[in-house]
Amino acid sequence: MSVSAEISSLIEPILQRHAWRPDRLVQILREVQEAVDFISDETAAHLAEALKIPYAQVHSTRDFYAFFYRENRGRYRVLFSDNITDRMAGNQALFEHMAKRLKLERGKVSDDGLVSIDYCSCTGMCDQGPAILVNNRAITRMTLRRVDEICDLIRGQVPLDKWPAEFFRVDDNIRRADMLLGTPHEPGKAVRAAIARGRDGMLAEMKLSNLRGRGGAGFTTAVKWEACRNAPATPRYIVCNADEGEPGTFKDRVLLQSYAGRVFEGMVIAAWTVGASHGFLYLRGEYLYLLQPLEAYLAGMRAAGLLGRDIGGVAGFDFDIEIHLGAGAYICGEETALIESLEGKAGRPRVRPPFPVTSGYMGKPTVVNNVETLCKVTEIAINGGAWYEAIGTKQSTGTKILSVAGDCARPGLYEYAFGVRIAQVLEDCGAQEAIAVQVSGASGVCLSEREFGRRIAFEDVPTAGSFMIFGKQRDLFEVARNFAHFFAHESCGFCTPCRVGTVLMKEIMDKIAEGRGTQYEMNELLRLQQVLKPGSHCGLGQTAGNAVADTVQKFRPAYERRLAETDFVPAFDLDAALSRARELAGRDDAAAHLGEEA
Amino acid sequence: MNAPMNPRKLRITTTSLSGCFGCHMSFLDIDERLLELAALVEFDRSPITDIKHCSQHCDLALVEGGVCNAENVHVLRELRANAKILVAFGACAVNGGLPAQRNHLDVGQCLSQVYRTPDGSATAIPDDPELPLLLDKVYPVNEVVRVDYFLPGCPPSADTIWKFLTDLLTGRTPRIEHPLLKFD
Fold first, then answer.
1. Is the pLDDT of residue B117 over 90?
2. How many domains does chain B have?
3. Option in A518, A520, A578 nearest B135 (CB)
4. Which of A335, A514, A523, B153 could form a disulfide with A368 if both were Cys (CB 3.0 to 4.6 A apart)?
5. What pTM does this model have?
6. Inter-chain residue contact A587 with B127, CB threshold 8 Å
7. What's A143-202 look like in SS3?
8. Which segments of the protein form a coiled coil according to its record (chain A) (predicted)?
């Protein structure tokens, strides 16, 4: 197999830029696709040869990521974000409208090879949805009119760069600012403060602060840093996890868009404390539009002596940051899957232990921190651990940013000291008629009205930041079904309980939605959850059934009104399943049909 | 103490739908334990007895094989209607198994390929009403009727079947654990 000279000439500079390094495979694939629209088997074989790696490795990596295509998906690839908040904002009607205008079916390319449309997982624009991606560029606030405009632009083959800038506007929507969002940033102040405290001093302040990770798991940051620092191997790495894939979360997007200095300085301080020389920002593919501004910011930091050699004038303190992009895989938010992806492989979670702090990127000690966590580090460097520890609750110090979306008057970011009640958040964002809140995304917990007195904190309701509100007109069954589809799509397929369990759960939810469910299916759902939760390899499978289990328990009527009254209903239409054979045999006698019940 | 001297024998019905009878063969592999079993149960409709239809009130139905045609649906419904407990017996009943390999193909294409005249000029798909029509796909049993227990394995070993039956017959919840629980 060989590729045309034209494709080869487009690929060559990309390979050159990445020095033919196989561990850059994911980045290479992304850039190749950007250049030639899709990665055919021939292109994959060409890459394997050039990188001197097995063809199967390129093949499997390409097929793992949702945003890499093996077949031509058109020069314009439109993806509609399909989170439940997009659904509530009417994305399905918009999708149908565009499909009709372009005369397209879901997932099919137009006859002239120009355009395709499909759905994708949450793109992190829940406060300004419905959102779409066109060739991975985010477009927000979709309306029927905007759909028409986009159809015209595509038909006219206008390059994306010439589309109205207004389409690509992404607002911050900061509604309640506290110590992070509300404090002006003074570039370099935090790094200088950390250097002044010394490596040991900074770690001591971190311990005092009792800062816990903001990515969801809530591991104590100082413990992570110390373990990495004490690991004998070098070099050490700092990774910032900006693969914000949890449906309903968008705080990291805002932090990277308007508070990037804090994120990067947090990484520099982490590097200073643990003695790392290299850092990565793993940015989710959906936030491609942030890449250039972030690169520019990094260049500015280098010029200001905050990155590169002898940072802050300290001889020998060398550290630099590189940005890697994801390609549409939720699982890469799991830290070991993220590291696999950084190494150019499919993002499948590793077996732990060993933990990344001793054996992470390239088998070397690696700290993986969330975007928000790193921002908090700069506050601790400037103000000290004791000051920080005084804010929030005993086990959850400091403030937390919530990404509020769904049925409320003012969706956006809300920063509170830990310990805030759910009811308070609902009051502030103008959600008078909420019947449920999904906290911490699809993998989180669904709270009903009677639980609105609970508090956001690791002691009570822990969260990675997502806060989706459902008003009284909403159907919680559809919410859970949306999440079930999400997990079935995002399971990496590594372990059987998750690979099979998430699909079974999705199919049962669909069966109930079609009115074919009975009490039997209700029992099956809970039985599946009992296998998924303890049996799955990583957090994805362990939490995949949460939303279903929660809603079955708290919103049972939403399920029961859909159940058939009989003992059991088949999963499919039996008579229709005979139709093809009936037609071919030319029969229509009684035995050629199947009734509802024998 | 007051147990009747001759407790009623439990009534078992078995069938092989779209299966290979391998699970039934494995069942027979319980060997001399068959005698022990015969003291406790009697067989109703089953390939072993050649009884053509279920009598009412069977206690247990063992269903081997997936559901591939209309007749399979009728047999399965008959067993479900007459048995208190229905077991998806073996890999094909649980997942569709080997026959489900055809699910990747269009059933129409399959038929026209198979019933092509030798020179390939025409197809002659039989239309005799005696012949059951094929479903578009091979389905696992649980997509057509309610299933009470799944006994995986291709086939489940004789020991697995024995453990399962003795658990049920003595009124315990059947528990199949490693090394008896196997999916291949």
1. no
2. 1
3. A578
4. A335
5. 0.87
6. yes
7. CHHHHHHHHHHHHCCCCHHHCCHHHHCCCCCEEECCCCCCCCCCCCHHHHHHHHHHHHHH
8. none
Range of the domain at B146: 10-99+136-169
DSSP class of residue B154 equals S
Report the residue count for chain A. Answer: 598
The DSSP code for A472 is: T
What's the pLDDT at A478?
Answer: 96
Do B146 and A520 lie within an 8 Å CB cutoff?
Answer: yes
> Residue A73's CB: how many other CB atoms inside 10 A?
22
Can you give the pLDDT at residue B8?
A: 83
Q: Output the six-digit token pair for B120.
A: 């390939």
Question: What's residue B55's pLDDT?
Answer: 86
Residue B176: inside a domain = no
Residue A433 has φ and ψ, to the nearest 5°, of: -115, 40
- pLDDT tens digits for B84-101? 999 999 999 999 999 999
Is residue B3 over pLDDT 50? Answer: yes
Integer CA distances (angstroms), A81 to A150, A167, A173, A236, in order: 16, 15, 19, 37
Q: Which two tokens stand for residue A90?
A: 């009417």
DSSP state string for B73-89: HHHHHHHHHHEEEEEEE
| Eight-class DSSP state of A108 | P
Specify the CATH number for the domain of residue B66. 3.40.50.700
**Residue B47: pLDDT over 50:** yes
| Residues 6 or more apart in contact with residue A84 via CB below 8 angstroms | A247, A248, A406, A438, A468, A478, A479, A482, A483
**Which mean pLDDT values do the consecutive 10-residue runs of chain A (598 residues) have?**
82 95 96 93 95 95 95 94 96 96 94 94 94 95 96 95 95 95 95 96 97 93 97 96 96 97 97 97 96 97 96 94 96 96 96 94 97 97 96 95 96 97 96 95 95 96 96 96 97 94 96 92 93 94 95 95 88 92 90 79
**pLDDT at site B2:** 58
- Check CB contact under 8 Å for B108 and A520: no
Burial (CB count <10 Å: 0-12, 13-18, 19+), residue A296: exposed
Whether residue B118 is contained in a domain is answered as: no
Residues 6+ apart with CB under 8 A from A203: A222, A225, A226, A229, A273
Distance (Å) from the C-alpha of residue B109 to the closest C-alpha of chain A? Answer: 10
B103 near A CB under 8 A = no
The DSSP-derived string for A29-41 is HHHHHHHHSS--H
**Taking an 8 Å Cβ-Cβ cutoff, which residues of chain A contact chain B?**
518, 520, 567-568, 570-572, 574, 577-587, 589, 591-592, 594, 597-598
Distance from CA of B85 to the nearest CA of A (A): 14
Q: How far apart are CA A59 and CA A1, in angstroms?
A: 14
Cis peptide before A130 (omega within 30 of 0): yes
Per cent of chain B over pLDDT 70 is: 97
Query: Looking at this predicted complex, what is its ipTM?
Result: 0.82
- Structural contact between residues A255 and A287, judged by C-beta atoms closer than 8 angstroms: no
Residue ranges with strand state E in chain B: 10-16, 41-43, 58-64, 67-69, 83-89, 134-139, 149-151
pLDDT at site A100: 95
Nearest to A574 among B73, B81, B146 (CB): B73
Classify residue B5: in a domain, yes or no: no
Q: How confident is the model at residue B4 (pLDDT cuts 50, 70, 90)?
A: low
> A450 — phi, psi (to 5°)?
-70, -10
Digit-coded pLDDT (tens) for B162-183 = 999 999 998 899 999 989 998 8
- Is residue B165 a part of any domain in this protein? yes
Cα angle, residue A134 at apex, residues A132 and A138 outer, rounded to 5°? 55
pLDDT given for residue A598 in this prediction: 45
Q: How far apart are CA A433 and CA A427, in angstroms?
A: 10
Alpha carbons A514 and A99: distance in angstroms, whole number: 24
